[in-house]
Amino acid sequence: MRQLVKETEKRVSSFFKGGRGGAAEVEQPRDGEREEVIPSPYLDRPVLDKLTEEGCARWGLTYALGSMQGWRANMEDFHNCVPQLGGELADWSFFAVFDGHAGSNVAQYCSQHLLGQILTTAQTGGMGSEDDPERVKGAMLEGFLQTDKNLHAAARREGWERGGTTVVAALISPYYIYFANCGDSRAMLCRSGQVCFSTEDHKPYSPLEKERIESAGGSVSIQRINGSLAVSRALGDFSYKGAENRTPTQQMVSPEPEVCVVERSPADEFLVLACDGVWDIISNEELCAFIHNRLSVCTDLRDVCSQVIDLCLYKGSLDNISIILLCFPGAPQLSAEALHQEAELEDLLESKVVEIYDELCVRGEEPDLLSVLTILASSDIPGLPPGGGIQSKRNCIISAYYEQTNIYPSAATGSANSASGA
To answer: Which terminus of the chain is more exposed, N or C, with fewer CB under 10 A?
Structure first.
């Protein structure tokens, strides 16, 4: 375990301090110690390719998805984007983020079966197109539990017993938004420029979660179940669901989602579903402010999602990063004033880069990108995007730097990676 910790620390530190090399040097085992070779959960360099998609519903909803593997050795996130359910539910929409752990199989399975199970349960319960909050909440709850039950059979058959996934989902009807959360992915609704609602993360150290874990024979140490699993509710994770004489919702890891309903309002602006690769780095209020600002200068929701992903990476996220952004008719619109302010900010940043570059040259110091970023980060820059700060304009700064050094701008990507933690 010492090798894994040391290797990961060195690799991540090297990247964030501007290192350009490959794998970090591995500490050799001390005399008398047996070398323990454990695959690192992190890569030497992050995978920066992004998956994006966009779409709309006939009733005025627009949405975009952004997803990136990042530092993780494997991509374990999956998603659902269904803007129109069809049939009697043609004016209903469903979106979900599945954040897998210990493999991607469970997250993939749930992304393929959860919605169908919810709809089957709803049909069996006679819900139809009736927008009855109690019936819908019941269908979502039972849909999760039945999916977990079916998953258990598949897991035994396929050997997935170690894997699991968190889920955060939103079912949008003409009158309500139904949220279902199981784990530590999160949904957030912004209304009139403020956070109106957000789901609660299910962590082992939360009092009610800890009580259930201990009653099922488990323990909570280093904020994890039995010192290992960092979430207290999930689909899958069947090695934590074997306590005898206890129902599925009474096990150490519960598949029971917390289902909440919020009545829709003309003041609703946008809704975010994202994995903990986002929420471990940025708060609800910061992300609400940042997206609200970006929507006034950007019409492409895919670009807004990409900016959020870059912001989380630059702030130090080491996880897979996935976000779904849903915009209602009341979302902020493109603003001429905001566009003007954005242009002024980028002009200011470009002039600052030139000023710092020239000053370093005059002092006889190497004007490398990391030095420029470090000085800029400690400078007072007015007009930065709220919730984003200097990190949210990193790409603009990098482009200005390479223009100053007469290097083709596309070369900025590699050096941007090595300096992304400044």
So the answer is: N
> Which H or E run contains 144?
helix 133-158
Q: In angstroms, rounded to a whole number, what is the distance separating the alpha carbons of residues 94 and 222?
A: 35
Q: Enter the tokens of residue 416.
A: 């941007």
* Residue 303, burial from CB neighbour count under 10 angstroms (0-12, 13-18, 19+): middle
Polymer length in residues for the chain: 422
- Cα–Cα nearest to 323, from 193, 198, 168, 144: 168
At 246, give phi and psi (nearest 5°): -130, 140
* Domain architecture of the chain: domains with CATH: 2-40 (no CATH), 44-327 (3.60.40.10), 336-418 (1.10.10)
Scan for tokens 């819908």, then name that residue: 136
Residue 39 has a pLDDT of 81
d(CA 145, CA 167): 12
Q: Mean pLDDT throughout 162-169?
A: 96
CB 303 within 8 A of CB 241: no
pLDDT in tens, 226-247: 999 999 999 999 999 999 999 9
Q: Which band of pLDDT confidence, cut at 50, 70 and 90, is reported for residue 125?
A: low
